[in-house]
Model the fold of this input.
Amino acid sequence: MNDAHLPNRDAILTKWGDGTLVDALFAEYGRIWLDEESPTIGLLADLHNAGEIDLLSIITTEAVERHTGPNFFDGQHLYERLIPRITGSVREMVRVVETLRIGGGNDMAAGLHIDKFAKWCGDDPSRPAELLALIDEGFAEANGYLIIAIKNGVAVDRTLFVDRAYGFLESGTERQRWDALSALGQIGMSDEADWGRLLEALETALAANPDDTFRAYFVSSIGERLKDAPAERIDALETLAGLALSKGGEHTLHSASRLLALYPEPLSAALKARMLEKLREVDAENKGAIDLLDIALSKMVTAGQVVDVRQLAEALIRRDEGAVKLGRLDSTVRAVVENPNDALPDWVVAWLRDGDHRLCAAMDRAMFGAGRDERPLRVDFSRYGLREAEYPYLARKVVSSFFLKPVLMSSLLSSLLRTAPAEVSTEVEQVLVDPVLQNYAGSTRDLLIPISEDATDPAAPAIARAIAAQDSYLERLRAPGFVPELCPSERERQLEWERHTDSMSEAMRNARRKSIFAQIATESVILYGKRAVSWVQHAGDEPRRMETEMGSISTSFEVPRVDIVDPVGLQLMLLSFRAEARPE
Done:
């Protein structure tokens, strides 16, 4: 819809007269999402400024509560466009702004209009003082807007508003101390005296406010100040940040992770390291902090700081209580997997050498698990300075960590064979034969045969011998031919088929209950045929016939052979591999 379809002056005045204008603003007007230069926005603002309608008085708690969900945000968006263009008292404007913020609830978009209110306050030099007077008066709706008052007021009367900011920091309410701290982190410091006063006040405030929330605001304020701090003041600011971090709790950790994720540039390497060390304590239930930490770590991987990231991930995974799963750091995992350098091989080798199954299992699930195509990973093990005893040790760790991923497992063992000393190469080769090739005879051969035929590949002779051993094993396995006595009876097959059918039906029912498609689409059962026919009708058109061809979706995976005939023995072998300690 464009402005040609919008109501004119008379239509707006009619709605104002019959009391339905507020409903129109949250409904048909709001749905159009006009831009700031729209003639309709201009018309609404002109009518308000001329006193013919009042766009502020009609915004009440009751009116907002009538319009929830998308309708509310349509109306909020409209007021976001209107606020900079309409006049009114600061008292009435802040009441409207706060009513709209509360109406948005916990949605991240609930406060989008507040930036426009800040601009509105700055457009008239009298407004910051009026807003500050409302805060002094105790006007409830103005309590959350001290930062806006101080930041805009400094441009009008710097001395007054800076003094008031320090006053609130020293003796204001809890919320006012938080907001004063944030404001002092954002207003400019004009000279050395200003910086000296700020640092002294920050040190005093930190000593007087030991609570976690204040420390969180304190760390964020330091992060802001570091953006424009002179070189001689950086050490003092970072020392204060370190003091706040040292005894901070979850709110402080959230602020630290936010700085690392979104504003890392002004932070020194020492301060970043201190923040990362403190973030080892982050609560696994603190989703916001972990999500921000994930963003920060992914940026560090891109910047080449893979070792630091890996060490932090190790600490989070190894915690005895409240361990953080590697999969929750999905952006970090993606950055490692997609890194064009050696981040992934280095990570894999480091955790395999460590041998802790918690790390290896986490790596298996997060980096090579569901949703990622199995692919070979070629690693140059000569880069890691391995001792002879580590080659067969790593071969067994590869098997215990990635046993259900034959291609990955075979590619890593092939890489080991390329650089393994002759004294231990046979032991690695034996691990490739048993258990890998004795369990998998499909995708592993597709990977290994080309290697065995490549005369330039150092692993070719060993791979060729392993394939020959597999051929001999399969030949002996098939030698007895078909043995009817080993086949289940017809009744046993029927019972298994019924059990399988029942389990699949139950799985489908459970999937339907949790499926979003079941909530938005109608299910139809096709009894025969290979396509579905439906009729679609649009307003004013004849019904249109649509055909949907049916297709099939399938997948396959290899099951380890020994798991069928000796599952207990296989599991015992894997357990022994997992428990093996790194050779001294």
Summary: The chain has a mean pLDDT of 93. The longest strand covers residues 531-536. The beta strands are 531-536, 544-549.
